Amino acid sequence: MSKYKEIVTDIAGNMGALSQNIPEVMKAFMSTTKAGGKEGALDAKTKELIAIAIAVANRCDGCIGFHTKTLVELGTTEQELAEALGVAIYMGGGPSVMYASNTMGAFKEFSK
Q1: Phi, psi of 43 (to 5 degrees)
Q2: Nearest Cα to 54, choosing from 8, 106, 100, 4?
Q3: Which member of 37, 52, 87, 110 has the greatest number of CB atoms within 10 A?
Q4: In what residue span(s) does the Carboxymuconolactone decarboxylase-like domain sit (predicted)?
Q5: Is the confidence at residue 10, as pLDDT, over 90?
Q6: Could you tell me the CATH number of the domain that includes residue 22?
Q7: Which domain holds residue 30?
Q8: What are the residues whose beta carbons fall under 8 Å from the beta carbon of 17, sequence distance 6 or more?
Q9: Considering its fold, how many domains does the chain have in total?
Q10: Does the CA dihedral 19-24-25-27 come out positive or negative?
C-alpha cells in the first residue's frame, strides 16, 4: 500500500475507537464536516480545494490524504490541485512547499 492510502486507512480505523470513547465529540465533528462541505454558493470541489490548501499550510498528513482522495473522487485535475497548492505555498512559505510536494504524490497514489 502506498503512503497516503495507508495513512487514510489507518486513521479511518482509529477513528472508530475514538468514536466509541468520545461519541458526542466525534458526532459533532462529523456534523461540522457535513455542514462545511455542503454545496451552496461554492461547489464541493471548490470547498475541497480550499480544504487541501489549509491542510498543506497546517502540515496535516492525514488531512492531505483524506482531502486528496476526495478531490480525485470529485474529478479534480492535477492542474486544479497544483493551483490550489500554489495558494497554500503563498500562504505557508517554505514548509508548505514540502507538504505541497507530498500532496502531489498523494494525488498520484489515489489516481492509480
Answers
A1: -80, 170
A2: 100
A3: 52
A4: 23-101
A5: yes
A6: 1.20.1290.10
A7: 3-111
A8: none
A9: 1
A10: positive
Average pLDDT over residues 63-85: 97
Spatial distance between the Cα atoms of 93 and 58, rounded to a whole number of angstroms: 11
**What length is written for the chain?**
112
| Grid coordinates belonging to 79 | 492542474
Give the model confidence (pLDDT) of 75-94 as tens digits. 999 999 999 999 999 988 88
> In 3D, which of 58, 111, 107, 54 has the Cα closest to residue 84?
54
Please provide the distance, in angstroms rounded to a whole number, between the alpha carbons at the two ends of the chain: 12
Percent of the chain clearing pLDDT 70 (strictly above): 99
Of 27, 20, 49, nearest to 37 by C-alpha is 49
Assess contact for 21 and 56: CB atoms under 8 A: no
